[in-house]
Design brief:
Elements: E1 2-5, E2 10-13, H1 16-19, H2 22-25, E3 45-46, E4 49-53, H3 69-74, E5 79-81, E6 90-93, E7 98-102, H4 107-118, E8 123-124, E9 129-138, E10 148-151, E11 153-156, E12 161-162, E13 176-177, E14 196-198, H5 201-211, H6 221-227, E15 241-243, E16 245-248, H7 256-269, E17 276-280, H8 283-295, E18 304-313, H9 322-330, H10 336-356, H11 358-363
Parallel strand pairs: 2-5, 3-8, 4-7, 4-9, 9-18, 10-15, 11-16, 16-17
Antiparallel strand pairs: 1-2, 5-6, 6-7, 9-17, 10-18, 11-14, 12-13
Helix pairs in contact: 4-8
Length: 371
């Protein structure tokens, strides 16, 4: 093991490929044993909470923040742990036992990063809570930019059949439809097989009840964008906390017609339990990896939370085309700064509660006793 100290962070740089046997990297592998001449195993770090972010804009500290920076700075995630098998090094607070990760953008990176962490023998994740904490597009029908949503229903917006709209039947309103079905929103669809996952709804409800009255930041500059959405009363409200369905798709879609599709598609896969509130790119990949890790006892899938903050609306306001609005948002999301602050405020309320009563929550997932 090589240790190197930096000016601000303690970096742990495990050169695992040089001496750690493969059975330590893949605990389920058979027939691998460590000889007496080999170095001792890497010490295992206990983890209470994993903060799952997807990107950082520049440096991890001291510049314009992305999803990770506020957590690193404010939760004192100063112990750097090399993570060459994934997108970004890990950061850990040994006192609180909170671990921060940056998966990279998209379902492929989120799934592989989560799997890599879950199989890493350096961490004890058996009782860890996992909280996705990232920005999202938000439906102006449901909420305003800067608002934050807890989600349980996670729908995959990529896995399906698609026909170009110019060639679809005249009585279809979209060319995208579920696999193993005959037409869009076919009621005869089979059970989900990767198209939809449901994270623990009792834990989601517990987190929402704990945070629903959180005092969120509401910068004046948000008002100009909110005021444009004259046909959507919820889009004009100050930021607030809510619950709702989430759709994950690798394509950054935008516009009123796509927004309508997302609502129908989430309602379709959730059997009408919810519709679309937030959109991003990663949740179904993260969940799928955690599901497999749960199967081998590395993690507890019931401890997974999804928190997303609205950095931008998913459709245009009246008088603006979808293309114009998308390009404008690409110059800088109107609700980016506020959403990052509010994700941190709300997410920290849950983390502080978990850490403050760890003896209880290590043994019992909150909300489970009420189910």
């Amino acid at each position: 093991m090589k240790l190197s100290r930096q000016s601000k962070n303690t970096q742990i740089n495990f050169s695992v490929t040089k001496w750690v046997p493969w059975c330590l990297l893949l605990p389920l592998a058979l027939g691998c044993s460590q000889s007496p001449a080999e170095p001792e195993a890497v010490p295992v770090l206990p983890v209470k909470v994993v903060i799952v972010t997807m990107f950082e804009i520049g440096e991890d500290e001291g510049d314009t923040p992305g999803e990770f920076q506020l957590w690193k700075e404010r939760r004192d995630l100063d112990q750097r742990i090399a993570f060459p098998q994934s997108h970004h090094d890990l950061y850990y607070n040994p006192e609180t036992q909170v671990l921060g990760m940056v998966t990279g953008i998209g379902t492929a990176k989120s799934a592989t990063a989560t799997m890599a962490l879950g199989l890493d023998p350096r961490f004890d994740l058996a009782n860890a809570y996992w909280m996705v904490a990232g920005i999202a597009g938000i439906d102006p029908e449901d909420a305003s930019i800067g608002s934050v949503a807890w989600s349980s229903y996670l729908v995959d917006g990529d896995l399906g059949h698609e026909i170009d709209a110019r060639e679809m039947p005249d009585d279809w309103d979209t060319g995208f439809f579920a696999r193993r079905t005959q037409f869009p929103y076919d009621p005869a669809r089979p059970k989900p097989n990767g198209e939809m996952f449901q994270a623990n709804p009792e834990l989601r409800d517990w987190a929402f009840a704990l945070t629903r009255n959180a005092k969120l930041v509401n910068p004046e500059e948000l008002e100009e964008t909110r005021a444009l959405y004259t046909e959507h009363p919820n889009a004009q409200k100050p930021p607030f906390v809510l619950t709702g369905g989430h759709i994950a798709a690798m394509t950054f879609w935008h516009g009123a017609l796509m927004n309508d599709w997302a609502n129908k598609y989430v309602a379709y896969w959730s059997d009408g339990a919810t519709d679309f509130v937030t959109s991003a790119m990663e949740e179904t990949g993260t969940y799928q990896a955690l599901y497999y890790l749960d199967q081998i006892g590395r993690v507890d899938l019931d401890r997974f939370l999804v928190l997303r903050g609205g950095s931008n609306y998913t459709m245009q306001p009246p008088g603006v085309s979808a293309a114009e609005n998308l390009l404008k948002e690409n110059d800088g999301y109107a609700g980016m700064e506020a959403s990052l602050e509010n994700i941190y405020i709300v997410g920290s309320m849950v983390i502080d509660e978990l850490l403050g009563n760890w003896e209880t929550y290590a043994a019992q997932v909150p909300g489970a006793e009420e189910s």
